[in-house]
Amino acid sequence: MKLKSVNTLKSTVAMLLAGSAMQAQAATATYDPATGVVDIPVVDVRGDAGVSTFAAQLKLNANNEFELLSGVNAASKTGDRVTFFTDSAALYFPTVEVSGSGTEFAVKLRQVPGSSPLAFSVESISPVAFESCPDFSTVGPINGTCVLSGEINQDITLTANTEWILSGYVFIGGDKTNAATLTIEPGTHIFGQQGNDALLIRRGSKIMAEGTPDQPIVFTGPNEQAAGEWGGVVISGYAPVNGCSEGVTVCETAFEAITSEFYGGDNPTDNSGMLKYVQINYAGFEVRPDEELNGLTLLGVGSGTVVDYVQVHAGLDDGIEMFGGTVQMKHLVLTGAGDDSLDWGSGWRGKAQYVAIRQADDDGDRGIEADNNGDNNDALPRSKPLLANMTVVGSSPDNGQGVLLRRGTGVNIYNSVFTGFAGACIRLDGDATYVNGGTPENLSGELTINNTYVDCVDNFADKADSNTYTTEQWFTAQSGNVQGDPQLSGLFPATGSPLLSADAVVADSFLDSVTYIGAFKDANDNWTEEWTVNFNN
Which of these three, 73, 103, 127, is where a domain ends? Predict the structure, then answer.
């Protein structure tokens, strides 16, 4: 570990620990050993229907499970609180104080399937205060830090009472062997020290990183000031990709940046785990010219993987890049990317809804850069994601574009906004892209855009020598598209905005049915609050 990195990291960790001490709050729950009762003043219940807030009590039963004793409506609050996710059945306590002992623990319970009355089993308990480094790590440069390195072939948990440091490439599992699960508790911080510090989840292994709005999981660099302070997060899966030689039945290929790492397979529903309420900040590393690590790189990741409420901020290269796969995502915040915010190729056929993109003011290339395959534009499976409810706001670079669709990609875009780009809002490029789309009079369904607003200096751009129709003709031939002012206030629709009410419902089992355009229903629908960085200021 270089001395400069150590000193910088010491300063950052010291500030973080000092800030935590100043912001210390009362415990989010208390446990009375004499009665076996857990008293919860505030618990948020988060599900498909939204958020409901309760005050509740649990009681320990003869099976060492905690049964629901009572629950009444309570006022919502910000700051530390208990959270229950109905989809994962996980109940998180940032702090539980044991009455009379003065000790506090972070606790995770899991709903017992089919229990009546509702009951929860204990999944994990960890002290709030740092104790020591576990055997899968080494002691860090200052008290309260532990270092991760090399290949980890066992199930491990990163707790919020420790500041974790990545040293070099840290691999979870071997490729298609020694599968392991990395669990990360809410509120945990993981630091990279320099460019080649990165976390890589290999095929067959999982990352289970489920934070909460008040306790997001944070991956970041030692300074927390500039792009490229560390590598990033890479996840590899078994979902289909393209790019192999003709006749190869199951395509498995090497990652361009780290050629020792392989991805792809024949399982579209492959599950690489979960990223939920996660920040990935100041990442990105150029391994070789034009071959970089992004903030979040998804290699052949399948639709069984949960990616929801994830921010990638101030990366040196792309925010999130998909290399094939079928991963489906919601609630993405992509801010300050040095290159493209959302990028795909190699046959990505996943989905995304609620995507908020704000390009860097002094940098940034495109909001979205989309390819099928650069070497063979018609390689199969062809890239064709389904994207809905995106708000993509540009910045000043002259060549900045809202979305570039090229190299034979397909896509279905709905209910979105592209605005503020100096280059163009939308550009189609490449013969294979045009052919794949059909014609404005006879669209193939492989390359479509509907119910979308564009508002840039030039709304459209074309490559003159490779098109049979213009981007504008393609755009205007489809229903609900508008060239005009979407009336935004920042990334949110202003009062009276035409985005607030639209015939915008898309029939798809993954997508929520909504009747508005853009990532946010209105100014009050700020799903980025609490868990993001540098977005709401």
Answer: 127
Question: Please, are residues 96 and 190 in contact by the beta-carbon 8 Å criterion?
Answer: no
Distance CA 267, CA 264 (A): 9
Does 276 fall in a domain?
yes
- The answer to the question of residue 132 being in a domain is no
Per-residue pLDDT tens for 189-242? Answer: 999 999 999 999 999 999 999 999 999 999 999 999 999 999 999 999 999 999
CA 111 to mean position of chain CA atoms: 25
d(CA 339, CA 108): 38
- Do 198 and 123 lie in one domain? The reply is no
Q: Domains in the chain: how many in total?
A: 2
Examine the domain organization and report whether 262 and 294 are in the same domain. yes
Whether the Cβ atoms of residue 179 and residue 203 lie closer than 8 Å to each other: no
Do 220 and 75 share a domain, yes or no?
no
Spatial CA neighbour of 108 closest among 93, 97, 89: 93
DSSP labels for 155-178?
-EEE-TTSEEEEEEEEEESBTTBS
End-of-domain residue from the set 68, 97, 127:
127
Are 61 and 180 in the same domain?
Answer: no
- 517 found inside a domain: no
24 Cβ contact list (under 8 Å, min separation 6): none
d(C-alpha 221, C-alpha 114), whole Å: 43
Nearest to 45 by CA among 90, 83, 92, 94: 83
CA distances to 224, 306, 490, 516, 530 from 519, rounded to whole Å, are 27, 19, 12, 9, 17
Torsion, Cα of 475, 365, 420, 525 (10° steps): 90
- Do 84 and 186 have their domain in common? no
What residue numbers bound the domain in which 337 lies? 143-424+490-500
The tens digit of pLDDT for each residue in 310-350 reads 999 999 999 999 999 999 999 999 999 999 999 999 999 99
Give, in order, the Cα–Cα distances in Å from 106 to each of 81, 179, 277, 292.
12, 27, 17, 37
The answer to whether the beta carbons of residues 210 and 182 sit under 8 Å apart is no
Distances (CA, A) of 467 to 376, 401, 470, 471, 475: 18, 18, 7, 9, 14
Distance of CA 220 to CAs 83, 228, 314, 356, Å? 24, 10, 10, 20
Sign of CA dihedral 349, 375, 438, 380: negative
d(CA 164, CA 419): 39
Are the CB atoms for 78 and 530 separated by under 8 Å?
yes
118, 153: one domain: no
> Is residue 405, in this structure, part of any structural domain at all?
yes
CA pair distance 54, 91, nearest whole angstrom: 13
H/E stretch holding 475 reads helix 471-476
Question: In this structure, are 76 and 216 located in the same domain?
Answer: no
Cβ pair 461, 471 in contact under 8 A: yes
Confidence band (pLDDT; 50, 70, 90) for 361? confident
Of 159, 137, 147, nearest in space to 193 by CA: 147
